């Protein structure tokens, strides 16, 4: 039931009940929910269809295949923030780390208070989280899959008396290959590619890969048709046009692409909120170097997360960063870089994400692609500096001899005693290396059509029969990894459609 670009030899028109744009966390989950409820679904995915047979541990092959813009997307601001997202069947879930957390209660309370989302209580959402967890096999990592790096990290956090939690990941018998960000070679990571997509297809859904939706058409205020371009995978050029006539259209292209599509279609303009309220959980990373070999790539990354500082908006974990990407982030070049990378087996890379306290925006460039701007505010800058210092504390406690820092003019420190330098260096935003893999909030959910784009069931306030079930619907920073939240709100929207079938789908 998957049609790839090169199999399409002429312009096509499909007629279906629901057209879902994007096959990642939000798109895959709602597509399966609806197809299993007996609804006809057509899924459009701009990226290619790849399976574990195609995945490669070589960054040069894997990244252009699975990542948008070959992983080189940038969010403008000072500093510019490096941003990565998936562009393939299964979306970012194919390349993500598999961490799965329910939306924290304090976040849901905020949604109720600030966005009038009265039904978004932990109790009422619990069945949706439970269903997602069952579908994508969320479970703690088995001890055998954890490596020495994770053990060192855990022991150090325990020694410091910090709360460190066993991670919950969507995996089945994960063997700890540590290649999650290049696509799991053994299908043990239960991404949307191997869970929700086969479920949807098994119930008759159709999926067009290499197919980019470029316009959503409406009639009398209702979404009626999607116009898409079937692309040549090698050149990215249009080969044919696909039109999908549908009773309901679901946008799930992610928090950058969906507002861009809405703007390009001239939809949902009244609220003035499309593309605003962009959140991104800014991240920093620190590389610890140890006397003995750590071989932190041997074993699953993020077997644990430090949750001691969640209330301060800081979450810490070790990261599965492959050598090519570690080398890119080191504050050196040439021979020095080569010599340092020879110590790769002695390294442990740890990172922190911080809660957003400001927002950025997305707009549509004249060439039809989204542009993003996000300026860190003072609170976030201080959090990122504190997070870097805390990571150094845990790495030195674990036995590191040196830590490479994400700052231009303070590139390394060699002991715990030097940590105060991080606070005293007067680090400016332009001197920080910041990255993110969590874009959220650009078509946010809420009760008030003047402050939000979609309602609590993800239906667009201004366009009936148009739903948005991706990361853009999340109204606030989460402070934890977002995929489970996205999937839960997506299947909740799916259930709402099934319960109101007569109104939407007949
Ligand atoms: C490297 C990395 C590690 C991460 N680690 C974790 C983690 O451990 N835990 C966690 O919870 N989250 C993690 N995340 C984040 C998480 O994967 C995303 O937040 C989540 O997948 C977003 O879901 P989504 O549905 O909004 O978009 P995506 O899952 O990104 O899916 C969107 C899909 O829509 C397609 N698309 C976009 N526009 C169009 C269009 N116009 N037409 C057709 N198709 C289109 C895209 O190609 C893409 O495949 C990580 C992300 C990355 C990149
Ligand atoms: S650690 Fe390896 S086996 Fe486990 S999910 Fe990641 S890539 Fe797959």
The overall average pLDDT, rounded, is 95
Overall radius of gyration: 22 Å
Total strand segments = 22
Low-confidence stretches: none
List the total number of helices: 13
Multimerization status:
single chain
What percent of residues are in strands?
A: 15-25%
Summarize the topology:
Elements: E1 2-3, E2 12-21, H1 25-36, E3 41-44, H2 59-66, E4 73-75, E5 81-83, H3 105-115, H4 122-135, E6 138-140, H5 148-160, E7 164-166, E8 168-170, H6 196-202, E9 206-208, E10 211-219, E11 222-231, E12 238-251, H7 257-265, E13 283-290, E14 304-306, E15 314-318, H8 323-329, H9 334-341, E16 347-354, E17 361-364, E18 370-373, H10 378-397, E19 400-404, E20 412-413, H11 420-424, E21 434-436, E22 466-468, H12 483-499, H13 501-504
Helix pairs in contact: 1-6, 1-12, 4-12, 5-10
The structure holds flavin-adenine dinucleotide and iron/sulfur cluster.
């Amino acid at each position: 039931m998957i049609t790839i670009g090169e199999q399409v030899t002429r312009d096509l028109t499909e007629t279906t009940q629901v057209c879902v744009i994007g096959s990642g966390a939000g798109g895959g989950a709602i597509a399966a929910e609806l197809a299993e409820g007996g609804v006809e679904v057509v899924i459009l995915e701009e990226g290619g269809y790849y399976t574990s047979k195609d995945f490669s541990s070589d960054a040069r092959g894997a990244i252009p295949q699975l990542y948008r813009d070959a992983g080189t997307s940038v969010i403008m601001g000072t500093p510019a923030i490096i941003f990565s997202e998936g562009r393939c069947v299964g979306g970012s879930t194919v390349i993500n780390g598999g961490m799965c957390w329910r939306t924290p209660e304090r976040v849901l309370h905020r949604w109720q208070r600030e966005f009038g989302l009265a039904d978004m209580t932990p109790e009422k959402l619990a069945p949706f989280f439970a269903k997602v967890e069952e579908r994508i096999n969320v479970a703690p990592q088995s001890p055998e899959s954890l490596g020495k790096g994770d053990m060192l990290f855990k022991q150090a956090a325990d020694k410091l008396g910090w709360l460190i939690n066993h991670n919950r990941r969507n995996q089945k018998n994960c063997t700890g290959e540590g290649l999650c960000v290049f696509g799991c070679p053994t299908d043990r990571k239960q991404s949307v590619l191997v869970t929700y997509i086969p479920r949807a297809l098994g119930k008759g859904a159709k999926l067009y890969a290499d197919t980019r939706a470029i316009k959503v058409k409406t009639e009398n205020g209702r979404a009626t048709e999607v116009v898409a371009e079937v692309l040549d995978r090698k050149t990215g050029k249009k080969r044919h046009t696909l039109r999908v006539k549908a009773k309901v259209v679901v946008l799930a292209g992610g928090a950058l692409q969906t507002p861009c599509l809405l703007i390009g279609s001239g939809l949902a303009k009244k609220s003035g909120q499309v593309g605003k309220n962009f959140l991104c959980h800014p991240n920093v990373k620190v590389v610890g170097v140890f006397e003995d070999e750590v071989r932190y790539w041997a074993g699953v990354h993020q077997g644990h997360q430090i949750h001691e500082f969640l209330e301060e908006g800081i979450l810490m974990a070790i990261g599965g960063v492959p050598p090519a990407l570690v080398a890119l982030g080191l504050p050196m070049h040439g021979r020095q870089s080569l010599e340092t990378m020879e110590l790769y087996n002695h390294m442990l890379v740890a990172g922190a994400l911080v809660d957003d306290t400001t927002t950025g925006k997305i707009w549509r460039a004249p060439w039809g692609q989204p542009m993003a701007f996000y300026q860190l505010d003072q609170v976030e800058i201080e959090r990122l500096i504190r997070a870097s210092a805390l990571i150094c504390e845990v790495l030195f406690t674990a036995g590191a001899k040196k830590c490479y820092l994400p700052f231009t003019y303070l590139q390394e420190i060699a002991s715990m005693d030097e940590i105060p330098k991080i606070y005293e260096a007067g680090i400016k935003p332009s001197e920080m290396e910041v990255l993110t893999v969590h874009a959220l909030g650009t078509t946010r959910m809420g009760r008030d059509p003047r402050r939000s784009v979609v309602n609590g069931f993800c239906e667009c306030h201004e366009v009936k029969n148009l739903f948005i079930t991706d990361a853009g619907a999340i109204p606030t920073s989460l402070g934890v990894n977002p995929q489970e939240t996205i999937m839960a709100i997506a299947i909740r929207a799916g259930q709402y459609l099934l319960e109101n079938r007569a109104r939407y789908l007949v």
